[in-house]
Protein backbone atom coordinates (compact mmCIF):
# COMPACT_ATOMS: atom_id res chain seq x y z
CA UNK A 1 0.00 0.00 0.00
CA UNK A 2 3.05 2.26 0.27
CA UNK A 3 3.04 5.04 -2.28
CA UNK A 4 -0.78 5.17 -2.54
CA UNK A 5 -2.70 8.38 -2.08
CA UNK A 6 -5.09 8.70 0.84
CA UNK A 7 -7.63 11.36 1.80
CA UNK A 8 -8.29 11.98 5.47
CA UNK A 9 -12.00 11.57 6.27
CA UNK A 10 -11.91 12.39 10.00
CA UNK A 11 -10.15 14.70 12.41
CA UNK A 12 -8.94 18.26 12.11
CA UNK A 13 -7.23 17.35 8.84
CA UNK A 14 -10.37 15.97 7.13
CA UNK A 15 -10.08 16.44 3.38
CA UNK A 16 -6.30 16.65 3.37
CA UNK A 17 -4.45 14.41 0.95
CA UNK A 18 -1.44 12.35 1.96
CA UNK A 19 0.80 9.61 0.61
CA UNK A 20 1.00 6.39 2.61
CA UNK A 21 4.61 5.61 3.51
CA UNK A 22 4.25 2.68 5.90
CA UNK A 23 2.45 0.98 8.74
CA UNK A 24 3.17 0.91 12.48
CA UNK A 25 1.19 -0.51 15.39
CA UNK A 26 -1.83 -1.19 13.19
CA UNK A 27 -1.98 2.38 11.90
CA UNK A 28 -0.91 3.85 8.59
CA UNK A 29 1.97 6.31 8.39
CA UNK A 30 1.20 9.17 6.03
CA UNK A 31 3.20 12.15 4.80
CA UNK A 32 2.50 15.36 2.92
CA UNK A 33 6.15 16.40 2.50
CA UNK A 34 5.58 19.66 4.39
CA UNK A 35 4.31 19.28 7.95
CA UNK A 36 4.49 15.49 7.94
CA UNK A 37 7.72 14.32 6.35
CA UNK A 38 9.32 10.93 5.76
CA UNK A 39 11.29 11.40 9.00
CA UNK A 40 8.21 12.55 10.97
CA UNK A 41 5.04 11.00 9.46
CA UNK A 42 1.50 11.25 10.84
CA UNK A 43 -0.10 8.08 12.22
CA UNK A 44 -3.69 7.65 11.00
CA UNK A 45 -6.26 4.96 11.67
CA UNK A 46 -6.98 3.23 8.34
CA UNK A 47 -10.73 3.64 8.81
CA UNK A 48 -10.20 7.43 8.85
CA UNK A 49 -8.66 7.39 5.37
CA UNK A 50 -10.22 7.04 1.95
CA UNK A 51 -7.86 5.37 -0.50
CA UNK A 52 -9.07 6.05 -4.05
CA UNK A 53 -8.44 3.62 -6.88
CA UNK A 54 -5.62 4.87 -9.05
CA UNK A 55 -2.73 3.96 -11.29
CA UNK A 56 0.33 2.18 -9.94
CA UNK A 57 2.74 4.42 -8.02
CA UNK A 58 5.57 1.92 -7.76
CA UNK A 59 8.34 4.41 -8.52
CA UNK A 60 7.20 6.79 -5.79
CA UNK A 61 6.80 3.90 -3.34
CA UNK A 62 10.36 2.77 -4.06
CA UNK A 63 11.74 6.28 -3.51
CA UNK A 64 9.86 6.57 -0.23
CA UNK A 65 10.86 3.14 1.06
CA UNK A 66 14.52 3.87 0.35
CA UNK A 67 14.15 7.28 2.01
CA UNK A 68 16.17 8.66 -0.85
CA UNK A 69 17.40 12.21 -0.82
CA UNK A 70 14.70 14.61 -1.89
CA UNK A 71 11.81 12.21 -1.31
CA UNK A 72 9.89 14.83 0.71
CA UNK A 73 10.23 17.05 -2.34
CA UNK A 74 8.94 14.16 -4.49
CA UNK A 75 5.91 13.87 -2.21
CA UNK A 76 5.24 17.63 -2.39
CA UNK A 77 5.51 17.63 -6.19
CA UNK A 78 3.34 14.54 -6.57
CA UNK A 79 0.60 15.97 -4.34
CA UNK A 80 0.82 19.30 -6.17
CA UNK A 81 0.34 17.58 -9.55
CA UNK A 82 -2.47 15.46 -8.13
CA UNK A 83 -4.36 18.57 -7.00
CA UNK A 84 -3.56 20.37 -10.25
CA UNK A 85 -5.06 17.47 -12.23
CA UNK A 86 -8.41 18.08 -10.51
CA UNK A 87 -8.50 14.95 -8.38
CA UNK A 88 -10.62 15.26 -5.26
CA UNK A 89 -9.00 17.53 -2.70
CA UNK A 90 -10.66 19.69 -0.08
CA UNK A 91 -8.55 21.91 2.15
List the helices and strands and how they pair.
Layout: E1 5-8, E2 17-24, E3 27-31, E4 42-44, E5 49-50, H1 58-65, H2 71-84
Antiparallel strand pairs: 1-2, 1-5, 2-3, 3-4
Number of domains: 1
CATH topology: SH3 type barrels
CATH class category name: Mainly Beta
Helix content range of the residues, please?
10-25%
Would you tell me the structural class of the helices and strands? alpha+beta
Shape annotation: globular
Distance N to C terminus: 24 Å
CATH architecture: Roll
Q: How would you describe what is shown here?
A:
The protein contains two helices and five strands, in the order βββββαα. By secondary structure, it is an alpha+beta fold. Strands 4-3-2-1-5 form a five-stranded antiparallel beta sheet. The protein is globular. It starts with a strand and ends in a 7-residue tail after the last helix.
